[in-house]
Design brief:
By secondary structure, the chain is mostly helical. Helices cover about 70% and strands about 0% of the residues. The protein folds into two domains: about 35 residues; about 230 residues, MetI-like (MetI-like fold), CATH 1.10.3720. It has a two-stranded antiparallel sheet.
Amino acid sequence: MPDNVEHASSSQRDAAGGATPVQSRWQRYRELRLTEEELATALLTPVVLFLLAVSFYPIVETVRSSFYTGYIIETRPTTFVGLQNYQQLLDSGSFWNAFQVSMIYTFVSVPVELVLGLGIALLLQRQFKGKYFIQAAILFPWALPTVINAKIWAWMFHGQYGVINDMLIRIGILESTYPFLAKPDVALAAMIFITIWKTSSFMALILLAGLSGIPDHLYEAARMDGASKWRQFRDVTLPLLKPTILVALIFRTLPAFQAFGLPYGLTGGGPGEATTTLVLFDHQLTFTQLAFGRGSAAATIITLVALLISLAYVGTLYEPEVR
C-alpha cells in the first residue's frame, strides 16, 4: 500500500478514535513511523546545531571582535573602534610581508604539487606488481603530522649537524656547512620544498580517484580515431578531470594559504619574518602581543581572501556539463 494511502488510513482511524492531529503525530513518533521530511529533519538537525556551535558562532564572534579593541586576558573586548584594527593592519609592514610570504608559498607550491600529483596518479593508474603497496607507501609523508615533519626537516637542514649538509659536502657540492634555514630566501624555498614533498602524494590520491572514473571506452574511441597519447591526455583526460582538479586545488590551496604548523615548527617564522605566513602572523599578534582585536581583524581578512581564492577556482574550472 502506498505511504500516502497508509498515512491517510491511519489518520482516519485516529480521527475515528477521537485522537487529535497532535496526538496522532506523537503516536507515530513513538512508533518511529516518520515521513521522509521528518526523517531528514531528525538526521540533519544535530549536524546543523553542531556546525552552528563550532563554526558559525566563532566566525560571527571573530568578525564582531574585530571592531573592538582589547586583550585576550579580558572577558570581552572593551572599546568599539570601528575599522581602526583593519586600518592598523593595512598600515603594517609585517602584515604585508606575511601576506606576500603566504601568496608565494601557496602559488608556488600548489601548482608544482598538482603537476607532480598528476604524474604520480597517471603512473599509479597502470597495472604493475606491488601497485597497492606503493600507493600506501607514497602517502607516508602526507600521513605524518605537519609539526613532526617540520622538526625532522629542521634537523636535516641544520647548519652544522644536518644530514643534507653532510651529503652535499661528501659529494663535493659544498666545501663547508651552509646555514640553510638562516638565509631568508633559502629558508622560504626550503619550506616550499618540504610542503611539496609532503602533500604531492595527497594530490595524487585525489587525482587518481578522478582518473579511475573516466570510462575506458573513451580512450578506445580516441585510439580508433588515431589520437596519440598526448591528444588522448589533452582531449579526454584533462576535460573529464577538471571537476577533480577543482576539488584538489581547493583542498590544497586553502590549507597552504592558512599554513601554520610547518613555518612554526621549521623556523618559527624566521629568519626575521622571512617565513612568517599570515596565520603565523595572526597567532603571534593574538597570543604573543595579546592584541585580540587586531588578531580578529587579521583572521577575518584571511577568511575573506581564502573565500576569494575558492571563488576564483570555481569560476575558472567549474563546468556544470562535465560530470
